[in-house]
Amino acid sequence: MSRSYLTGIVLGGLLLGSLSGTIQAESKTEQTATGYVFQDTNQNRKRDPGEQGLACVRVSNGREVVCTDQSGKYELPVTDDTILFVIKPQGWRTPLSKNLTPEFYYIHKPAGSPQSKYPGVKPTGPLPASVDFPLYPQKEPEQFRAIFFGDPQPRDQKEIDYIAHDIIEELVGTDASFGVTLGDILFDDLSLFESQARGIALLGIPWYNVIGNHDINYDAPSDKLSDETFERAFGPAYYSFDYGQVHFIVLDDIEWIVPEENKNTKKEKKGHYQGGLGKEQIEFVKNDLQQIPADQLVVLMMHIPLVGVEDRQDLYRLIEKRPFCMSISGHTHHHEHRFITKEDGWRGPKPHHHIINVTVSGSWWSGSPDERGIPHTMMADGAPNGYSIISFDGTEYDLDFRAAGRAASYQMNILAPEEVTADQTSEIEIFANIFNGSERSKVEMQVGESGSWTVMEKIDDIDPSFNKLSETENAVEGKKYRNLPKAKKSTHLWRTKLPAGLKPGTHLIRIRTVEMDGDKHQSGRVIRVLPAKPAEKTASTPGTEK
Fold first, then answer.
1. Which CATH superfamily is domain 412-475+488-530 in?
2. φ, ψ (nearest 5 deg) of residue 430
3. Tens digits of residue pLDDT in 241-256
4. What is the CATH number of domain 2-136?
5. CATH T-level fold of 145-403
6. Which segments constitute the Calcineurin-like phosphoesterase N-terminal domain (predicted)?
7. pTM of this prediction?
8. What interhelical angle do 279-289 and 312-319 show, nearest 10?
């Protein structure tokens, strides 16, 4: 029987790609999928006569990576649980869903997903004779920007609304080329994928998604089946794409572990997660990178930080000789720049730069509400909730930290007392929490217009302001907001003391920083110096008067 399929037909909400030709007989054994990558000139998602196939475009089944031939054709082996996807090349775009999530894949699950609390993929039927992928040309400058969300993590629709008002509204009209959520798109309730995607779609740019430990099916009996609902909503949990001069790889580093004795229980959470990639995904990364030039920037995007991935050494061997490679994650709800060295088994000629991204939800939408009713949700390292914008230029990149609901210039919090006495100044400690700071930042302090600039000391310690805030707020009885978490040591905190000899009066403390990428920021705080208290007279000893 001959049938024609449109690329983008969704069965149960899934992109099926452009499917055309004769339906093959269903088989539970390995089959060979064939199809074309083509320029969809009339944008109907169907490969029509005369529409040109595109040569040298990469296609994958999640393990092997092949290039289309001169006619745009490819062949790949598939099983009854395979997702085929095109690796978007530079200068082209894939179709987008109504929520602007890229539709670059075809799910082949003839029998569909097993029954679960949250539905997975509906049966896709037999393998089509041709699984085709449409592409559309677009301009991609060498210089571009991308938005990165760490852990939006809403529990319910109310918290999705928090995201809309705290983050989305200020980003409408962005000039970023695309955005990425770095996992924990939700907080366990997977029925909210659609609502969350609709809100982000208001930004008007393509949006990619990384799977997090709160985005999986907790009732799944194995890691392989823990992604079924995510796949229904967004497609494969790991994949790659090109934009401009940069190659991006999305990784699934959530392994769902179910002990054998728990597999037949009816408890929803009968297992636990750990950071891991697995042999099949490592093989995909290996095959993918073999076709990426050594002088091209590679960006790895994941949820659990790289140093928390059990089989990270296998990944290190694939990237450590590349001169241009960085990685970014979420998960820990603080912002940090890490430089991975031989102490963690890294063998590359220079440390690997890994960014743990600021989270949208901050401290899980906790803390007292602001005037809008939104929790201030400061993170436990003393940094505000927010997001990052990374600017790319060839092999160079520059991260811009953005605090939610604040001006772009809000890059630090200066901790100083309101007033001190003149005789105390040299004992008073001043702290600066530089939100995007790292061990490669230079931070200095000046007091007054004529004061000299003093280098501040970087410390790994608890932010005093967060510690005080959490103690105060958490002690409130009858509160209707969640407690802030316990303070954690900040990796972007600096300290110094006020200079001695400050005269009574009002003084301006200035803090300036030069970050690792050359970005400069400056902020100030006013402090009052009071006259020293007169020394108290002591009574004379009787009999000593003259």
1. Immunoglobulins (2.60.40.10)
2. -110, 130
3. 999 999 999 999 999 9
4. 2.60.40
5. Purple Acid Phosphatase; chain A, domain 2 (3.60.21)
6. 50-111
7. 0.91
8. 10
